[in-house]
Amino acid sequence: MTRRISIITAAYAPLAEYFAETVKSVVGQELPDGWDLEWLVQEDGEVPGLAGTVAGFPQISYAANRAHTGIAATRNLALTRATGDVVQVLDHDDVLLPGALLQLLPHFDKPSVHWIVGQADDLLSDGSRRAYESALPFGPVPAGSVNTWAMEHGGNWPIHCAGLLLRTHLVRAFGGWGGAPVDDDIIMFAALSECVDGFNDPATTWLYRIHERQTHKSATWRERSNDGRRIALQRVEAIRAIGLKTSVDLSAVEVPKPIQVGPAAKDDSGLPWWKTDHS
Predict the structure, then answer these.
(1) What 3-state class would DSSP assign to 198?
(2) Prediction pTM value
(3) Tens digits of residue pLDDT in 183-207
(4) Torsion of CA 45, 48, 53, 55, to 10 degrees
């Protein structure tokens, strides 16, 4: 049975000067036997401008919001189109290194592994790279350990969420990316990783681009920097309070085909909505 990875990228044309490099790094990826790839590029903003950049690449599925909805909503809209067993986060200015997916995807052969992250070098503006030491040991990461570390370090996580690979069912089960203006990825990952084990791979598999127009350097992000992390910690505390854990073997659970829904039920006829024809 062929398995699939769905790469999810929230893109935004006014900040996408490096996007062509991201495209090149993804379409050049090799895959392990038995895997295929779809790349879901979801463009935020009222005036789309990136369709031409991804045209001609059959593995890329592009859609535009045609509204400014923010990173979290844009990622979640892409998630509605995902058909893969696994999703990977990839920002529109970062780079996957050759062999990244060959290195990481085989870890999902183990039913106990529900999320994976490889190491990232910072990609500096002059083109040089700076290694970033892992705060956690390499290998299996028990459920809850990343959050315990964060609690002991001022609400700062030891895993770089911009490079995560996660089982799709779990991302959906935990509500997708958090509905907050900042740290939507930490909010989702904190809850998910509290309940399931992951894997910290020692290989450097991607580059995290450092530049002055990064989203997290914006005024809004700086003003809200504590809010997203506080939400994440509140979720962790709630999960621990109710004792939520999962031991389900998701490696054998197929991701369903995209779900079809009918028109939205609206009270515009004077009748109860369930008595109107919504076919």
Answers:
(1) strand
(2) 0.91
(3) 999 999 999 999 999 999 999 999 9
(4) 120
Tokens read off for 178? 């958090």
Average pLDDT value for residue range 45-53: 97
Which residue has better confidence, 148 or 259?
A: 148
Q: Which domains does the chain have, with CATH numbers?
A: 3-273 (3.90.550.10)
- Residues 196 and 251: beta-carbon distance below 8 Å: no
Alpha helices in 3-50 (DSSP H): 19-27
Triad 187, 189, 191: Cα angle to 5°:
75
The 3 state secondary structure assigned to 1-13 is CCEEEEEEEEEEH
Residues whose CB falls within 8 Å of the CB of residue 90, separated by 6 or more in sequence, listed in order? 7, 8, 9, 22, 26, 96, 162, 163, 206
- For residues 83 and 59, the answer to whether their CB atoms sit within 8 Å is no
Tokens of 124: 């500096």
